[in-house]
Write a structure and sequence with these properties.
Blueprint lengths: L2 H23 L3 E4 L2 H8 L6 E3 L5 H7 L4 E4 L5 H16 L3 E3 L1 H9 L8 H7 L1
Parallel strand pairs: 1-2, 1-3, 3-4
């Protein structure tokens, strides 16, 4: 394998681990779509995760008391729509959405579903 490519993969791995470390250290609430997404993050030690599955979105938005959340919904078309809705609703309520990790995953990886994060990292 081309040496520069391998270094790039290590950089991606390190960046992802850095994002996860910051989320844990800052004890940020992470919002994901389902239980498999929650399990994937738990495998990296992320504990404060709220799922959207089987719940009305407006109730989830109303329940969030944090002023800063990480919105980590999937990166596919449906996830983009969901992200836009939740980002708007949270912003209207004064909740700041930290989208840096999600944007990094979208720009620098081929990962499109959060539930696949653990497997993706194992393959890097």
């Amino acid at each position: 394998m081309f040496c520069g490519f391998r270094v790039g993969m290590k950089d991606v791995y390190d960046e992802i681990m850095g994002f996860l470390k910051r989320i844990k250290e800052e004890d940020k609430l992470v919002i994901v779509e389902g239980v498999n997404d929650k399990r994937a993050l738990a495998s990296f030690g992320v504990k404060r995760v709220k799922t959207l599955s089987r719940r009305a979105l407006y109730k989830v938005v109303e329940e969030v008391r944090d002023k800063d959340v990480v919105l980590l919904v999937d990166l596919d078309r449906a996830g983009k729509k969901l992200y836009a809705y939740l980002n708007s609703e949270f912003s209207q309520r004064g909740v700041r959405v930290d989208n840096k990790f999600r944007e990094f995953l979208f720009r620098k990886t081929k990962l499109r579903q959060i539930e696949g994060l653990k497997r993706y990292m194992e393959r890097l």
